[in-house]
Amino acid sequence: MQRITIAKGDGIGPEIMDATLEIIKAAGAKLEYDEIEVGEKVYLSGNTSGIAKESWETIIKNKVFLKAPITTPQGGGYKSLNVTTRKFLGLYSNVRPCLSLYPFVATKHPKMDIVIIRENEEDLYAGIEHQQTDEVVQCLKIISRPGCEKIVRYAFEYAKVYGRKKVTCFTKDNIMKQTDGLFHQVFDEIAIEYPEIENEHWIIDIGAAKMSDTPEAFDVIVTLNLYGDVISDIAAQIAGSVGLAGSANIGEECAMFEAIHGSAPRRAGQNMANPSGLLQGAVMMLNHLGQNTIATKVQNAWLKTLEDGIHTYDIYDEKQSKLLVGTKEFAAAVIANLEQKPTTLPAVNYENGQALNLPKYKKRPQAKKELIGHDVFVHWNGTDANELASMLSKIGTPNLKLNMITNRGIKVWPEGFSQTFCTDHWRCRFKTEEGKVINKEEIIILLQQCIQNKIDTIKVENLYQFDGKMAFSLGQGQ
Ligand code: NAD
C-alpha cells in the first residue's frame, strides 16, 4: 500500500475526485489516502495561500498529491495555490500529454499524440517585477543551469521510459541569447547522452505554428515555463480535449497530479462533469508510483469507454456518441470495461515502464568570473541621447568609460537614429578597455559621481566575463 494525499477541491472537484478514486480502486490500485482541505473555504477563512500549515506537512510526508481543481476567489490578494505548490515543493517538471481521440472526440488532428514537458519554476514566472521609472516596468527572466539540466534530462528520460522517438526543444534563442541560449545549449549537451532518441530544436514562434498545423510532426516537446504554459493549452485544445487532459507536476521528492481544467462552478453538484481530466492525472500518478499494471488497465478501460460512445455532456456529439451519461455513470462504465482494451484507438501498455530515475543535479566547478564593466540604468526625461551622453561625460574612472547608451535595448548612442522612439529608461554602459578587469569599488565611484551630477540611477547590472567569455548581450544595433 502507498499512502498519498488527496484534496477534493471546489465546484465539480468532489464529484470528479470520487469518480476517479472509485475507478482506480476497482482497478486494484494499492493506495491509502490522507484527505486535506484546500481552496475556496480555506481562502475565505482568511488564509490567502488557500492551504493550512498542517496540510503542507501531510503533503510532504506522503510525497504524492492528487488534487482536484479549486476555485480562486476574485480579488483580495489570494495567491494561486498551484503556483505556490509547484515552487514550495520544487515541482520543476510539468508533464502534459495531449492525445487526440479521433473519431470519438472531434478534432482536426486525428493523429496527434504529443507530450509537452514544461519547466515549471523559473523564467518570467519567478515573479520578480519592479516599476523603475514613470514609463517603464520590468520582469526578470531567471533561467538557471540546474533548472535547464533537470527539465531537459527529465524530457529525455521520459522519452526513453515511455518509448517515445523524438524530443524537440522550443526556445527563442535567436533573440534571448543568454537565457534561451542556455536552455538550448543544455539541450544539445544532454541530447548527446541519448543517441537512440532523435532530437531537434525549433524557434518557438515557427515551432508553435507548426505544432498547431501539423502536430503529428512532434512527439515530446520540452520548453521554458512561459512558452510551455501557452503551447500546452493550445496543444490540449487542438487535440479536441481540454476537458480530458491531465497533468503531472514532478519534483525530486514530491509530485502533484491534477486535471488541467478548473472547478467549473456552474456545473457543480449536478452529476454532469467529466472526470476524465483528473483520471488522466491519476493514471500518470499510478505510473509514477510504479503501479504500471493498474495504470495500463485504467487507461485502456477509459479509452474503450470513449470508443463505446459513452460520453458526458461536454464531448457528447450526436454523430459519434451513443449514450449521454453523468459523472457517476461514466465512472461505472469505465469500471465495467476494466478488463477491456480499445479496438480502434491504440491500446496502451505501461507494464515495462519503470519509474523515471533522475540523478540529482551536480554542481559544476566555478568558472573564472571577471568584472569588466557596469550597465547603469538611468531615469531621465529628455529625448536626445546625445544630451544624456554629454551629461554622462563627467562620469567615469580611468578604467571605465561610457561605451554605449540604449533605450529599451536599442542603441541610441553613439550613432543612434533620430527615428528611434525613446522612453525615460536608459541603459548606460560603462566598460573597460578590451580585456581589462576591474574591482567592485569602481561601482561606488560611478554611483557617487551620478549623485553629484544629479543623474537618477535606478540600478546597476555588472558586466562579467566567465572563463574569458563575454557573458552579457550587446545593444541591438551595436
Ligand atoms: P473551468 O476549466 O473551470 O471551466 C471552463 C468551462 O469548461 C466550464 O464552464 C465548463 O463548461 C467546462 N468544463 C471544465 N471542466 C469540465 C469538466 N470536467 N466536465 C465538463 N465540463 C467542464 O475554467 P474557469 O471557469 O475559467 O475557472 C473556474 C474556476 O476554476 C476559477 O476559480 C479558476 O481560478 C479555477 N481554476 C482552477 C484550476 C486548478 O485548480 N488547477 C485551473 C484552472 C482554473
TrEMBL record:
Catalytic activity: D-threo-isocitrate + NADP(+) = 2-oxoglutarate + CO2 + NADPH
GO MF terms held by the record: isocitrate dehydrogenase (NAD+) activity; isocitrate dehydrogenase (NADP+) activity; magnesium ion binding; NAD binding
Enzyme's top EC category: oxidoreductase
Domain Isopropylmalate dehydrogenase-like, residue spans: 3-334
Classification via InterPro entries: IsoCit/isopropylmalate_DH_CS, Isocitrate_DH_bac-typ, Isocitrate_DH_TT1725_C, Isocitrate_DH_TT1725_C_sf, IsoPropMal-DH-like_dom
UniProt keyword annotation of NADP present: yes
Pfam families assigned to the protein according to its UniProt record, in alphabetical order: Iso_dh, Isocitrate_DH_C_bact
GO biological process: glyoxylate cycle; isocitrate metabolic process; tricarboxylic acid cycle
Protein keywords: Glyoxylate bypass, Magnesium, Manganese, Metal-binding, NADP, Oxidoreductase, Tricarboxylic acid cycle
NCBIfam families in the record: ICDH_alpha, PRK09222.1
Function: Catalyzes the oxidative decarboxylation of isocitrate to 2-oxoglutarate and carbon dioxide with the concomitant reduction of NADP(+).
Family recorded in the similarity comment: Belongs to the isocitrate and isopropylmalate dehydrogenases family.
Summary of subunit composition and partner proteins: Homodimer.
Name under which the protein is recorded: Isocitrate dehydrogenase [NADP]
Organism from which the protein derives: Flavobacterium dankookense
Lineage of origin: Bacteria, Pseudomonadati, Bacteroidota, Flavobacteriia, Flavobacteriales
